[in-house]
Amino acid sequence: METSLNHLCVPRFELLDESQILRLHHAALRILGEVGVKVNHQRAVDLLAGHGAKVDADNIVKIPQFLVEEAIRSAPSDLIIYNRKKEPVMELGGKRIYFGTGTDLPKTIDLVTRKVRDTTSDDVILSTIISDAMPDIDFIGSFGLPKDIRPGLHYIKCFELEVRNSAKPIFFTAGSEKDLNVILDMASTVAGGDEELSRFPFLIHYSEPTSPLTHSKEALAKLLLCSERKIPVNYTPALLAGSTGPVTLAGSLGVAVAEALSGLVIHQLANRGSPIITGVAATAMDMLHATVSYSAPEFRLTHSAYAELFHYYNLPIWGTAGCSDAQFPDLQAGAEYGFSLLSAALDGANLIHDCGYLGQGFIASPEMIVFANEVIGMVKRYLSGFSIDDAHLALDVVRSVGPGGHFLGEKHTLDFFKQEHWRPSLFNRENLPNWIKKGSKTLDQKLVEKALEISKTHKPEPLSSTVSEELDRIWDKISSQMEK
Amino acid sequence: MADIIKQIYNAVVEGKVEEASSAVQDALNSGLEADEILNKSLISAMDLVGQRFGEGEIFIPQVLWSAKAMQAAMDLLKPHFTSSRSKDVGKVVIGTARGDIHDIGKNLVAIMLEGAGFQVIDLGVDVEPEGFVEKAIEEKADVIAVSALLTTTMQSMGDVVSLVKERNLPSVKVIIGGAPVDGAFCEEIGADAYGIDAMDGVRKVKELLSR
Fold it and tell me: Is the ipTM of this complex over 0.90?
């Protein structure tokens, strides 16, 4: 027996060394101490001022290092997210990776006509059902922003449709404190009360600061509400290098990290120990088309950098991958999904969102959720590496087969083939004659067929009729109020 | 009686060699006819295995272990067959083409054929056309199966077909297979069939013998 050997060989990726991590951390601390952030919410300003921050004119708040470092320590480093049935399904923290869709895509590629059109509430149901059926999609978002529901009500409707059509955790947005409160009422109804909801959270709210260095009143209202009610919240800036942040990646990271950390401070001051997922998105603005690239290689670099920094803080972090700048599920989309999903997984980001996105965060593609699921399976197999212990080295098997024999009939092959080899469910591995015999289908055709099949056959676990009726009642009440 | 037949069937489906052997021995000891054991359990078990494999429910190593269980059972049954049909499900002489030592495809086909109940005479690799034909005559084989991976070695498959014609052996069918082989090549050299993959090869051999 060899005692010094680590049997598991797994792919690893490291971008920053410790001095580089600290350089980035100190840059963010200096921005917070010397430049400050604009805090457009009186209670948040009061909280900061009351704990030692300096408030200048126009609510520019300069945050001292000790407040930031206290917040990093007081926020939970390990965050358990449950499904609707109160089973723990995601343990956010460390380098554990989970994948999901996102929210608010105004356009959808219709599965039948293959045309881009406005998103409707039926699309929210469809993407929820597809996400529910996909084994490697761990959490769901509304995916689309339905045009058939009036603003002010659409986030509430989205949440209702999601919770009705999947038991998986829900990642959701809200327009304001007002609709957030209604959504939390619905969630509380599903969980069986506020206390049960904060004990077994099955939802994560998404809110964001505005780059550069500004916290809006609405964003902070939602952040504070989640903090007080112990609802997990994801508070992360989306910065564009060259427009809302410095053009350089290091400069952008400093600003974005300062934004995320100031949000963390406010959140923890409101209720120490309340659950939060943090991190940043800092991508490049395309300087020719003035568009936001969801797939720039620079985005992958800033993603890896902040992931390592926030791992250093030992905080649960979000991530972005499985998205593309292409307007249609084409080769560009395939390449950008593959690259981003592998990269984000190697970064060990915990809550990796945006799977199924096309068109720079404008277009929802239901079949690309299925595609992302396939790639995630491949990436997870790659990241699980291989064992180099005696059973896996299999010298005795090699000895018994010898030169010129074959291993197909060995017991060792039978025992290990399933765990050792990943099998695609949609990627082609047929030989040419068999592929032709089965209709010469390309992957894009198979993805659409699979998505349509799921939409017809997959039956998510329904809510109890009592809860379902209560959700109807909450919806009727709020929608009639809004009509007035 | 139905129990022991079911037991053999399950052992073959699950690829349990020792269980298959001991169940077949029990069945013979209890006075069951070898033909009945073959027809009622082994053949239908391998049919199910083939079907599951075709539908992607089970994989090559599992099929091989079922084939091994089938073979072990057949070895016990052979001395006891009474009807001529089951004695001779079919006999196949198999090998790789002259100059070709890539034999994993050939091995797969051989194991699948055995699993389907055929008697397989494996000539190994780099077999001369004469080697195939002489052996087929000697063994009174029904089928010659030739495998090749290389476009350079596949040319000798045509020589096997010509030799079978030259020696006037109309009852001996020639089937070819391997990555470079396709329908057009099969037709060009006048072979009787070609297999897209190992399972298809077994299917084609069955078709050739049922004509």
Answer: no
